[in-house]
Amino acid sequence: MEFTSADLKNYFDEVIEMIEEEKDYLCELDRKLGDGDHGVTMSIGWQAAKEMIDGDLKDEDDCGKISMIVGKTFLNAVGSSVGPLYATGLMRGAKTVKKKTVLNDDDLAEYWLAFVNGVQERGQAKAGDKTMMDTLEPFGEAFQVKFESANEFIPAFDHALGFARKGMESTKEMISQKGRSSRLGERSVGFQDPGATSAYLMLLTFLAYVKNKSAQVS
Amino acid sequence: MKKLINDPKNVVEEMVEGYVNAHPDYIRQLPENNRSLVSVRETKKDKVGILIGGGSGHEPAFMGYVGEGMADGVAVGNIFASPSPQPILEVTKAIDKGAGVVYLYGNYAGDVMNFGMAAEMADMEEDIEVGAALASDDVASAPVDEKEKRRGIAGEFFVYKAAGAAADFGYKLEEVVRIAEKANENTRSMGVGLTPCYLPQTNEPSFLIDEDEMEIGLGHHGEPGIEKGKLETADRVADRLVEDILNDMDLEKGDEVAVLVNGLGSTPKMDLYIIYRRVDQILKEQGIKIYRSYVGNYITSLEMGGCSITLMKLDDELTKTVDHAVDCPMFVQK
């Protein structure tokens, strides 16, 4: 498929909309485990990104630059732990598509794998710690295997998203090992991790976007 | 919860604006970043810069401790969220006098990542040497064998005090870090929560608790504590908190401590002094000498009700830092 810089901006716009819709739900999840602000934090970061996308990035067609600036903007607006984690993902992804205005399947695959690895490297969490890596790690692994064998982006992403979902849902049964909620110990069991949830929602939004786009083309 | 605010989105910006305009003789905002505040007071040449920071909602922490004798600059985060690396970096550049800058912050995942990224940027992009010391005084947040997981609460105040004094004494960066770490090593806190705080943006309670309940070990952002039970008298609560602290630290008859009884936001000073009265009694009974005491709202959690008790075990070096004069907008010690 052909994924243009306009598509990338459209995708970010859809993430922004999605976060506004899910803001209260993400806060609610976070109140069980942390200080109840995950939805607010995501909203602050993505609203800042929106200003950038509608402003400075309006005529920008370098996918690398767009993703880099969105990441940096998100980071500066947010701080927190969410800021460095998502920003590192977006910025590492950006590096793989530097100076590209149109992305093909290989580019997109590289982008998302770099995204996953960036979050992992920054947070040093692994699947089982009850963090966003419970979504991203199984997603990345399943995606890589599937994409290497079939070389088609959308089916591989779709397939991997199932693993992401299972990973997200599995956080309900986990004892938190990282971040503020790790101090809860066993009392963290029973609640789905808000970071794992927002990570899943970002991936889900991407799949919906590319599926919709390819349906329109064909 | 009723709040005296305008648009909840703007609470941090408007607070900072008010603060800077109220205390122009102490502090200024950097033109590069409105979340970067630095002291306007002249400091000695070659003094190590002290940078503090963290989320908003803990006032007078953290910006209230920028001034003479404590911090030279502060990076201000969103409510209960670490500042991002950019404002930290801007403060670092502004307060470095060639002797490097020490970052002081609480042990939270977000702070560790953002201050860590800023330290890397200061080193790589600006060639400024950065040291760091983290506060991890909350006994309730992890068992003693997992001390590296403990979060920083009111005891951070003693870490700022120690590092700020050491920097003023003209100590080099590694020495300032060592003293800050030593202050943290010797400091323990235990808190109790009575009523939740409400984030301005959601206006939802940070935790749920019945009218007649208290929660021991509650975190500074409403993170659940270790035990919820019926509210007890001030004396019984102080007994419990001090007992947990003494069980966790190595204090013997004849030792000297600094004591901090810290209000979380909406608990009156009357209650805090009633708590202090009992802390004083217990320590006297144990033959532990209180060298200096601090009672009041030092690190709060918006309008949360409750308090924490902090003890720092003193030696000659730490005593000297406790005695050091401080002049900040929200804290003065002569």
Automatic annotation (TrEMBL), chain A:
The UniProt record lists the keyword Kinase: yes
Keywords in alphabetical order: Kinase, Transferase
SMART domains: Dak2 (SM01120)
Signal peptide residue numbers: none
GO molecular function: kinase activity
DhaL domain location: 6-208
NCBIfam families per record: dha_L_ycgS
Stated name of the protein: Dihydroxyacetone kinase subunit DhaL
TrEMBL record, chain B:
Keywords, sorted A to Z: Kinase, Transferase
Gene3D superfamilies: Dihydroxyacetone kinase, domain 1, Dihydroxyacetone kinase, domain 2
PROSITE patterns, per the entry: DHAK (PS51481)
Xref: SUPFAM superfamilies: DAK1/DegV-like
All residue ranges annotated as the DhaK domain in the record: 7-331
KW Lipoprotein (keyword) present: no
Superkingdom of the organism of origin: Bacteria
GO MF, one example: kinase activity
Chain segments annotated as coiled-coil in the UniProt record: none
Record-linked Pfam families: Dak1 (PF02733)
The name this protein goes by in its record: Dihydroxyacetone kinase subunit DhaK
